[in-house]
């Protein structure tokens, strides 16, 4: 990259949607007030557009609740969801895209996750504006984006006004936000139930638009919450995907650098030492919770896969998932569509990342011990 060329994430269009465009007005004002309205002048335009949309979200959200509120409350899911869990940059998006090729399943789309308070009313309109509103690629990698594509339900949770550690990105120079919601383990029972109720409501809304189809979901923080997901959705099934930490952690560094810059109402001022420590803390918190909580999950409802194996033999790994979790006949349901999709993605290139010595030391001290059981070893 030349000295004058900016990183891709700094070229992100200022007019493109931000995560916060789905907030209702009262939730948006609470977010700003909690952070003392510390908006950088370069983000005033974004703050204005989010504010404008927050009013629309409140108004249309009231209409959506009036029309669909009782229907969603009475709606019964056809079967328990399937959750893809794994640390950020472990391949959860790739695996979510693959499983969602099966037309017997449905999934939360980017539109539904970003605009949960109004998609039942305005969804068809926004889908027609897809190419005008959504950038072609995600800022942190080369993955294409679209309102139609599968997305993380964590975005829906905070846009519906609930707690989420993702709210840290709005003001990345402030204190950590809702970190106890990474695992839910330290929360009182009432707050856990409230969090579960919000997620259940959203999953019902997604399923309502595609009745009869099980919902496939993924959000990286869910890896530390599987016990509570199983409580909220009895019979839920889990696919855990892991990845070589020497690739995983540098990619996570790029992820937070790009998202904090793009999504923040102020510009990040933290240094690499802080970011490295934050990533290490979060990794250990999530994986320690995952190993504790998986003991309470029916072994037949949980499968472990590796990103490297998924890339090397995609059909073989997907077949093993279908067989272990009893998802149906692989050949009849997904084999052909999977082959076509893989052919269309053959030119996709994975980003390459530098691995500074201090980051490698953190990986080997804090991350690798949690992944050795999944076949990852220290580099020689």
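Sequence proposed for the structure above (380 residues):
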């Amino acid at each position: 990259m030349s000295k004058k060329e900016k990183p891709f994430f700094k070229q992100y269009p200022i007019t493109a949607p931000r995560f916060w465009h789905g907030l209702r007005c009262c939730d948006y004002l609470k977010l700003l007030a909690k952070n003392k309205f510390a908006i950088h002048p370069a983000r005033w335009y974004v703050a204005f557009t989010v504010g404008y949309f927050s009013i629309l979200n409140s108004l249309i959200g009231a209409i959506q609740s009036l029309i669909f509120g009782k229907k969603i409350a009475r709606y019964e899911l056809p079967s328990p969801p399937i959750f893809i869990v794994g640390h950020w940059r472990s391949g959860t998006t790739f695996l979510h895209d693959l499983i969602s090729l099966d037309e017997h399943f449905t999934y939360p789309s980017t539109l539904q996750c970003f605009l949960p308070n109004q998609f039942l009313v305005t969804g068809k309109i926004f889908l027609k504006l897809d190419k005008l509103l959504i950038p072609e690629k995600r800022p942190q990698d080369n993955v294409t984006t679209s309102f139609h594509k599968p997305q993380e339900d964590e975005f829906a949770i905070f846009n519906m006004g609930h707690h989420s550690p993702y709210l840290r990105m709005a003001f990345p120079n402030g204190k950590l936000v809702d970190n106890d919601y990474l695992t839910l383990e330290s929360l009182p029972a009432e707050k856990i139930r409230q969090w579960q109720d919000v997620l259940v409501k959203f999953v019902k809304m997604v399923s309502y638009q595609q009745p009869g189809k099980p919902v496939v979901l993924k959000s990286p923080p869910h890896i530390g919450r599987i016990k509570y997901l199983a409580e909220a959705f009895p019979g839920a099934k889990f696919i855990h995907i892991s990845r070589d930490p020497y690739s995983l952690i540098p990619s996570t560094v790029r992820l937070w650098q790009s998202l904090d810059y793009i999504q923040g109402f102020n510009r990040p001022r933290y240094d690499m030492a802080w970011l490295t420590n934050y990533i290490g803390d979060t990794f250990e918190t999530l994986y320690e919770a995952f190993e504790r909580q998986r003991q309470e999950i029916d072994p037949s409802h949980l499968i472990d896969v590796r990103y490297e194996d998924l890339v090397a033999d995609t059909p073989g790994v997907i077949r093993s998932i279908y067989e272990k979790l009893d998802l149906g006949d692989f050949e009849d349901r997904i084999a052909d569509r999977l082959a076509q999709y893989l052919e269309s993605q053959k030119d996709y290139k994975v980003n390459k990342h530098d691995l500074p010595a201090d980051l490698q030391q953190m990986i080997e001290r804090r991350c690798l011990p949690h992944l050795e059981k999944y076949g990852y070893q220290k580099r020689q």
